[in-house]
Known about the structure:
Elements: H1 2-18, E1 28-29, E2 37-38, H2 42-52, H3 57-61, E3 71-76, E4 82-87, H4 96-105, E5 110-111, E6 113-115, E7 118-127
Parallel strand pairs: 1-7
Antiparallel strand pairs: 2-5, 3-4, 3-7, 6-7
Signal peptide: 1-18
Keywords: Signal
Amino acid sequence: MKFIFILCLLFFCGIVTAQKKTVPVNKVYTKVDVEAEFKGGASVWARFLNKNLQVPKKCVDNDELDNFPSAITFIVRRNGSVDSIKTNREDGSCWNSEIVRFIKLTDGMWNPALIHGKAVDSYYKLANMCVKFETE
């Protein structure tokens, strides 16, 4: 009887331990509980974009203002830093270097994504960004 009790005790302890959820720290996640977010929210992001995004002279000279990338992806790290910045226009678009420069300016200005309440590295995608340029 003691043997069966000990066997059952070991079995149930194993089940309880197996239910503990761990979050690997060396992984970059695509699905998270809470998405990464620019500190201050959308209105602060819009002001930052308006103040810091510069129209490259090359785009103006070549009349390529409408060649703005429709998708920009990067990694937001646990500490709010950014890296691995890519655009969907890898064809030498006049905007690519400006987009990379602009996103690098946001380094440290992000609240990281969360899984089970823990900060994790995650992919972030700015899709269908609508940028309107006013000409003089």
